């Protein structure tokens, strides 16, 4: 059996690494990797491939940045060409990016079954491109691998009940495998001159925050007013928008360390040691929980409601900086730590299900 994996953005490299390793450790299934090129800078792409030992992509489509529709359309057309030459039995997609949608749509049009890892997530906010990507991908998928029970229930409410598997979260596999290696190898704390539990980590990249000047200004004001050490790896989109909206002066406070996007080991290290994490990322919210660091989510809603119910994540909205500051200052480390994301054997579980589909196991 041949599986064609489509990846393109930073979080997908992390999600794909453990399952890809599993697939390559045996001979029943052959994996072909397609990189759409949605993320292309060294530190947004190549650095992840080398650190996570992901094999070099068999096809690199080099699509790069563009408007939502054009980027997705260009991916769709190029993935279709690859599908026609490779003729895979299954197309494997991860998460909710434009690469996910393009991969699943191209496969569906050619009646190739789609397997979706991280199926069933919903923010119920259709203004997010990611929400559109998730809903459409789930409705095109044959095999749906859900990280949480909430995700299974979301699919059920939309009438998707067949071949839905509650597998746990594949990012937890990566954390268990890489956390101690990362803490051992990374020297980011020395480089930045930061001490454990003496700084906040901040990430912002979602279009809903970066493309709205009021929201972006509100978030940057929080960083200035918090008056604590802040580590802020700047996503390329956010950097562009800060310049575009003339907000650079809000990053000039001495307490804010603005740095380039960092690799996975550095990221796990600064996430582990932060006093708390402020983020609009889906993956970082989860990683915060998996590393037992409290999280403040700079959005109006979250797909990871279990982390909120457990008291480890606080959704602030982005209407005014004072509300966010009040939440940040009150944040504590909860005592209870329920198991929300499985046992770290998600790639093994998914692998076994895929093997069953070959009829040989
Ligand atoms: C994408 C995903 C989002 C995911 C995120 C992780 C979509 C719609 N969004 O958003 O779900 O959480 O990745 O980071 O698919 N850029 C560079 N260099 C790079 C990569 C991007 O300069 O290596 C710039 C581009 O100029 C562009 C923006 O960053 O303006 C990228 O936009 P997009 O492709 O939508 O990706 P993300 O914003 O990262």
Describe the structure.
The chain is α/β, with parallel strands linked by helices and 361 residues long. It is 47% helix and 14% strand. It has a seven-stranded parallel β-sheet, sandwiched between helices. A six-stranded parallel β-sheet has the order 10-9-8-11-12-13, sandwiched between helices. Helix 1 links the parallel strand 1 and strand 2. The longest helix is centred in the first third of the chain and has 19 residues, at 68-86. It starts with a strand and ends with a helix. Bound molecules: uridine-diphosphate-N-acetylglucosamine (UD1). The site of uridine-diphosphate-N-acetylglucosamine (UD1) has 19 residues, from helix 1, helix 5 and helix 11.
Query: Helical amount among residues, as a percent range?
Result: 40-55%
Strand content: 5-15%
Going across the biggest sheet, name each strand in turn: 3-2-1-4-5-6-7
CATH hierarchy: architecture of the largest domain: 3-Layer(aba) Sandwich
Shape: globular
Number of helices: 16
Topology:
Blueprint lengths: L1 E6 L2 H15 L5 E6 L10 H6 L7 E2 L7 H19 L3 E5 L3 H12 L4 E4 L11 H12 L2 E4 L2 H9 L6 E3 L3 H16 L2 H5 L7 E4 L3 H4 L2 H14 L3 E4 L2 H9 L11 E4 L4 H10 L2 E4 L2 H9 L4 E3 L7 H5 L3 E3 L5 H10 L15 H13 L3
Parallel strand pairs: 1-2, 1-4, 2-3, 4-5, 5-6, 6-7, 8-9, 8-11, 9-10, 11-12, 12-13
Helix pairs in contact: 1-7, 1-16, 3-4, 4-5, 7-12, 10-15
The chain binds uridine-diphosphate-N-acetylglucosamine.
């Amino acid at each position: 059996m041949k599986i064609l994996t489509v990846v393109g953005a930073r979080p997908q490299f992390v999600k794909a690494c453990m399952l890809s390793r599993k697939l390559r450790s045996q001979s029943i299934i052959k994996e072909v990797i397609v990189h759409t090129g949605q993320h292309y800078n060294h530190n947004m792409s190549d650095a992840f491939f080398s650190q996570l030992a992901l094999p070099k992509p068999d096809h690199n489509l080099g699509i790069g940045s563009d408007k939502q529709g054009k980027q997705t359309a260009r991916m769709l057309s190029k993935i279709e060409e690859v599908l026609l030459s490779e003729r895979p039995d299954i197309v494997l997609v991860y998460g909710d990016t434009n690469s996910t949608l393009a991969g699943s749509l191209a496969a569906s049009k050619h009646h190739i079954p789609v397997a979706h890892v991280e199926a069933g997530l919903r923010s119920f906010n259709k203004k997010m491109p990611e929400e559109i990507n998730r809903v459409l991908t789930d409705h095109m998928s044959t095999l749906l691998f859900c990280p949480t029970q909430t995700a299974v229930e979301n699919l059920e409410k939309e009438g998707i009940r067949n071949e839905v598997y509650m597998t746990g979260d594949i990012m937890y596999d990566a954390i268990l495998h890489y956390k101690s290696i990362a803490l051992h190898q990374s020297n980011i704390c020395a480089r930045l001159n930061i001490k454990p539990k003496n700084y906040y980590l901040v990430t912002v990249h979602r279009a809903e925050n970066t493309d709205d000047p009021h929201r972006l200004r509100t978030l940057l004001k929080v960083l200035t007013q918090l008056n604590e050490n802040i580590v802020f790896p700047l996503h390329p989109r956010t950097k562009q928008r800060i310049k575009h909206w003339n907000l650079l002066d809000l990053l000039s406070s001495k307490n804010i360390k603005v740095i380039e996007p960092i690799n996975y080991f550095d990221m796990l290290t600064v996430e582990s040691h932060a006093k708390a994490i402020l983020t609009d990322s889906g993956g970082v919210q989860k990683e915060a929980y998996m590393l037992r660091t409290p999280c403040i989510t700079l959005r109006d809603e979250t797909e990871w409601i279990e982390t909120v119910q457990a008291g480890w994540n606080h959704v602030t909205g982005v209407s005014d900086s004072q509300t966010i500051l009040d939440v940040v200052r009150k944040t504590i480390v909860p005592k209870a730590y329920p198991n929300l994301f499985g046992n770290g054997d998600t790639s093994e579980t998914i692998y076994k299900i895929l093997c069953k589909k070959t009829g040989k196991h």
